[in-house]
Amino acid sequence: MCTTPLSMILLGWEGAGGLGAANVGTYFYLGGLLLLLGGVGEWILGNTFPAVVFCQFGGFWFAYGATLVPGYGAYGAYSVDANNPAEGLKESAFFATFAFFLFAMALLCVVFFVASIRTNVLFFLIFLLLIPTFCCLAGSFFHLSHGNTGSAATLQKVGAGILLAVSFLAWYTFTSLILLSVDFPYVLPLGDLPNLVKGAKK
Length: 202
Description:
By secondary structure, this protein is mainly α. It is 66% helix and 0% strand.
């Protein structure tokens, strides 16, 4: 509910833009809050990997949403006009600083990608694609910080396109788990991979 619309917004479909600021409520509640609660639930069940993943991405959506809210001062701190926080969105320092956050997310996804080899094909593919997604988006902001708007736009669309593919994989995973939860007679396979790499205890 967050990744799909954000990817379409970053692609600029139907004139959408503004880094998806119109959906900031979605980022906080359908992204941040639900993922955080899901992470806590997985932690209670003893499922460490999904618990960490859900909580981390819940934190990501909270952080992204907060960046877009003027009251948090994320971009206002870079504004040369104290009476106009939005001017900070034009400053190269803001773009470069935010890019490092996205780059760190790419590094985190590398760790999740390696761990996902012991889970299933869908998780494996999702984290594999999230790495270039965050790298492209980070690169887009770095180019913006240097005034290379053309390259920035290209990288943004490439990253958004990969993110859209990630969202389709996430929808597939979600549908599979929902069908499984109601004992539906037909289940979408996730492609279990636990035996691909033997565990340390084995």
